[in-house]
Design goal:
With 359 residues, the chain is an alpha/beta fold. Helix content is 37%, strand content 16%. The protein is built from eleven helices and 16 strands. The strands form four sheets. Strands 6-5-4-7-10-15-16 form a seven-stranded mixed beta sheet, with helices on both faces. Strands 11-8-9-14 form a four-stranded mixed beta sheet, covered by helices on one side. Strands 1-2-3 form a three-stranded antiparallel beta sheet.
């Protein structure tokens, strides 16, 4: 099999997702940072497995991957009648949307594709497929611009000589380009603001160690890797001035679900009076979810906890609890950094006002 050439984005980092000559490619994030490998996705089933296995991860990125993955699921069905083809689009979208339950962007991207298909009046199924490809590309390009604008608005929070803490990976690797939590960092860096970043390693899958520290280092940002349980000590020493994380789903009241451990960081930040911000595009807001307590929390494979990489580190037959996410209440959040600006409390009212037409 020929080696896959991985394109670079505007940050000179590897693209997370790309569509080339009618084919979908993903950067395999499970082997980073030791290997940089692109993988061609042949079927919708493969895309689903890639999402579950975290080869592609991050709420915005899996929304984009879902849109392209749907195309793979219907590509060979273009000889069907338009009505039958539409039925298959809905069926495949519903199935793929179950790959990961917590991040709302996956179902958002698939719903957008389905709604778009329903709004068209194509002459045949082949024409509808081509229109859907154009829509998937629009979703992809829109995500690039949304994340860039998050950075434009959030960069004002980062002052010279500050220390910024982030948790998990809400960076370029989790989106189409600039990231969400990292976007203000990339923009501030481009603006030549001197600051430093502390990246939590983020157990159990080490997205902070493997991904965030790597991509920030590649971009020339001053980054220091710490274990999750070092954050309190650094805050107590006055080394952390600001926390910015991402979110996989934001409830209508401003509660945020993010990678497990985020709630602990928020509690620490509140205790040490460090502002805690969350960065997100509008596609991550779930106005149908009134509060965070209703957000489904994905339970992961126990081996992610009992093993450290390939090595087992826990007793055999030990009971394991392995939630992938936790929910941070809105009262711990200083502001939501969005593509439209920084939204402040009260979040329920202000989110509704800002995004009235998106609901």
């Amino acid at each position: 099999m020929p080696e896959i050439t991985i394109p670079k984005n505007r940050l000179n980092l590897p693209e997370t997702i790309w569509w080339e000559n009618g084919a979908l490619f993903l950067l395999d994030q499970t082997v980073l940072p030791l290997e940089i490998i692109g993988e061609r996705q042949e079927t919708i089933e493969q895309v689903s497995e890639s999402i579950k296995a975290l080869k592609v991860r991050g709420a915005p990125a899996i929304g984009v991957a879902g849109a392209y993955g749907l195309l793979l699921g219907i590509k060979e069905l273009r000889d069907l009648s338009v009505d039958d083809f539409m039925g298959k689009i809905e069926e495949k979208a519903a199935w793929l949307g179950e790959a990961r339950p917590t991040a709302v962007n996956l179902k958002w991207g698939l719903k957008r594709m389905v709604d778009f298909a329903k709004s068209q009046s194509p002459a045949n199924s082949g024409e509808l497929y081509d229109l859907l490809l154009e829509e998937a590309i629009r979703i992809h390009e829109e995500d690039r611009e949304l994340c860039r604008m998050i950075g434009v608005h959030g960069a004002e929070l980062i002052k010279p000589s500050q220390g910024v803490l982030t948790h998990c990976n809400a960076g370029s690797l989790a989106t189409s380009e600039f990231g969400t939590a990292t976007s203000p960092m990339y923009v501030a860096h481009q603006n030549e603001v001197p600051f430093r970043v502390y990246a939590d390693e983020t157990r159990p899958l080490l997205q902070g160690a493997r991904l965030t520290s790597w991509e920030l280092q590649q971009a020339g940002i001053d980054v220091t890797l710490i274990t999750d349980n070092m954050a309190a000590h650094l805050m107590s020493q006055g080394l952390i001035d600001l926390v910015i994380t991402g979110t996989d789903r934001t409830a209508a009241n401003g509660d945020v679900a993010n990678k497990i451990g985020t709630l602990g960081v928020a509690i620490l930040a509140k205790h040490f009076e460090v502002p805690f911000y969350v960065a997100l595009p509008y596609s991550t807001i779930d106005f149908d979810m009134p509060a965070g307590e209703g957000i489904p929390i994905e339970e992961r494979d126990p081996k992610e906890v009992t093993n450290f990489g390939a090595r087992r580190t826990a007793p055999n037959k030990i009971k394991v609890c392995s939630p992938a996410f936790d929910v941070t209440p809105n009262e711990m959040v200083a502001g939501l950094i969005t593509e439209r600006g920084i939204i402040r409390p009260p979040f329920k009212e202000n989110l509704s006002l800002e995004y009235a037409t998106a609901q």
